[in-house]
Amino acid sequence: MDNFIVSARKYRPDNFMSVVGQDSITRTLKNAIKTRQLAQAYLFCGPRGVGKTTCARIFAKTINCVNITPEFEACNECESCKTFNESRSMNIHELDAASNNSVDDIRNLIDQVRIPPQVGRYSVYIIDEVHMLSTPAFNAFLKTLEEPPKHVIFILATTEKHKIIPTILSRCQIFDFNRISIHHITERLQFVADSEHITADPDALSIIAQKADGAMRDALSIFDQIVSFSGNNITYNTTIENLNVLNYDYYFRITTALLNGNYPEALSVFSEVIEEGFDGGIFVSGLASHFRDLLMCKDPGTVKLLEVGVNIQKRYHEVSSECPVDFLFSAIELANEADYKYKNVRNKRLLVEICLLKISQAGSPATVKTERPQVVAAEPAKPYQQATQASKPTPQPVPPTQHKPVTAEPETPKTVNTNESKPEPVVAQADRPAPATEPLITPPTTVVQNGSTTIPTMSAFSIKNIGKQSTSATHNEVASTSDKTEVTGEDAFDNDKLSHVWDQFSLKLEEKPRLHQLFKNTRPVILREAILEITLANKGLLDMVETIKPELLQFIKVQLNNKNIEIQLQIAELPDTGEGLLYTDEEKLKYMINKKPEINNLMQQLDLGL
User: Fold this and answer.
1) 182-243, what's its fold?
2) How big is the CA angle at 332 (ends 331 and 333), to the nearest 5 degrees?
3) SS (HEC) of 23-67
4) Which residues have CB under 8 Å from 152's CB, separation 6+?
């Protein structure tokens, strides 16, 4: 018990060959020793636990070795190597800049470097966490760092290179250490386990490597912790239990449920995760990474980007074969969006549940087969007859010429004319408004386009459409049809027709209350021919209209069948009468302060703002 040494110290590399994950740096240092082109100062920078101090010690030990091997490694047999291995070398000095960061400490160092080494050729000074030196200390160190005695070599190590002044950087050879890959950490952990006669599951070692976040020292510390917990047999289950890591099985169960459109099962699995004590933010972040890993398995060129254990990787390949690429794209986007919003929402659990509901409706083939009835192209008359019979008292036979399936090439819509009654276009049953006398909720249907099955974005069971009137669906349908239509006509129009079209577009904006209210209280003016002018109260409202101006212009052109229509926006210079509508938050706050000046005092006392 008394002789126990932690793995991070016991298995610390003692030569360049045993350094993990820094091949380019070790090769450069060995070549410098080979050609005897040693600089007076080196700067090793990078994240924690990647081998900066270790490489500095190996380099200092090797350049003082009397019998360097043909591979340019220290022999570990000469007097210099033995004194180094026994931590009694007088040629290698290690300083901690965090506790020796003043000008006086640097002056003592400058006096010390004048003493030549007693054994060996070089006195090596390793200064760790050098970014902690004060600016005066850096300035006092400049001259000695640039032109030290011939027997002195400085090796500076830091995790925050940006905090070192440029004059110091310019006097050093800089080596940037990278984070160690999960693959290399796993191999090193397997070597340590074999050396200690410990049985370790490869998936468990992969979890430890992921938890270490590229730091070998952290990985070895976690390894010792797991050994203390589970003994000489490290398993996947004991590892995730000790490290409080979410089991991959939860993500695979949720993926299967979402692919089948079984959102109740997905919500139940998420409830289990919460009951296990895991935070919803960790879950949704891991869910996005999970779908990303499934996407990586879809192509042989990206499989190498999958950093999981061997057994888990096999399961990823099995599940990935069942996931459509479009489904994975949508799932990654929705999960990433929920992860981004998680910190700012009040009801965090509801946010994750809504995310799962949206992913379940992402349009996977399994969802189409189990929950959504299909419309076959060979029988196009059925959905049309069902839709027309619901609104007519007596069934009417449909002429054969009107039996057309909905295809990917829509007919050019005709100009909307309120004075004439024209036959309605053939639309999907879920998107048609229900009759006033007999409210009916129809399940969403699929549309066959060029032999492929597509799912309508607007459906009666969509979360966004719950509780909304069917009239808005009609206007959205007209708008979506007209947005992609090329206008070739030049029909004349007056204020009445323009106002009617304006009201139609206003109904499109019911989901955006501020824009909807703005369009209800604003009317365009016909300046000349096809030039329309819209006057707005302030710059904020103008910017709001600018965001939807292209859509508005295209809608008006299609509905009025006039390709020459143009829209001009301007700001009205209105006197401040204190009356009128308040649109922006700033206007509302200013109005409240004018009415109640005490609000301003309260805001200043509590340091409040918008």
Assistant:
1) Helicase, Ruva Protein; domain 3 (1.10.8)
2) 90
3) HHHHHHHHHHHHHCCCCCEEEEECCCCCCHHHHHHHHHHHHCCCC
4) 40, 113, 122, 123, 124, 125
Q: How far apart are CA 176 and CA 169, in angstroms?
A: 12
Task: Identify the DSSP state of 150.
Answer: T
Beta-bridge mates of residue 334: none
Are residues 130 and 157 in contact, defined by beta-carbon separation less than 8 angstroms? yes
* Amino acid, single-letter form, for residue 253: R
Mean pLDDT by 10 residues, the chain (610 residues): 77 88 90 89 91 91 87 86 85 87 89 83 90 90 89 92 91 91 90 90 88 88 89 87 85 89 89 88 90 88 80 86 88 91 90 90 51 41 42 44 42 42 42 42 42 41 40 44 65 84 84 80 82 82 83 86 84 58 76 85 81
In angstroms, the CA 270 to CA 158 distance is: 42
- In angstroms, the CA 535 to CA 572 distance is 6
Run of H or E including 351: helix 348-360
Distance between CA atoms of residues 180 and 52, nearest Å: 12
CATH class of 495-571: alpha beta
CATH of the domain spanning 7-176, picked from 3.40.50.970, 3.40.50.300, 3.30.70.100, 3.30.420.40? 3.40.50.300
CATH of the domain spanning 248-371, picked from 3.90.1150.10, 3.30.460.20, 1.20.272.10, 1.10.490.10: 1.20.272.10
What residues does each domain of the chain span?
A: 7-176, 182-243, 248-371, 495-571, 575-610
Share of the chain above pLDDT 90, in %: 14
CB 559 within 8 A of CB 516: no
| DSSP three-state, residue 452 | strand
In a 13 Å sphere around the CA of 551, the CA atoms on its Cβ side amount to: 15
Cα–Cα distance for residue pair 565/265, rounded to 1 Å: 53
For the chain, the 3-state helix, strand and coil shares in percent, each to the nearest 5, are 50, 10, 40
Helices (H) and strands (E) in the chain, counts: 25, 12
- Phi, then psi, of 592 in degrees rounded to 5: -65, -40
pLDDT at 581: 63
pLDDT at residue number 101: 84
Those residues with Cβ within 8 angstroms of residue 83's Cβ, 6 or more apart along the chain or in another chain: 89, 90, 119
Q: pTM of this prediction?
A: 0.56
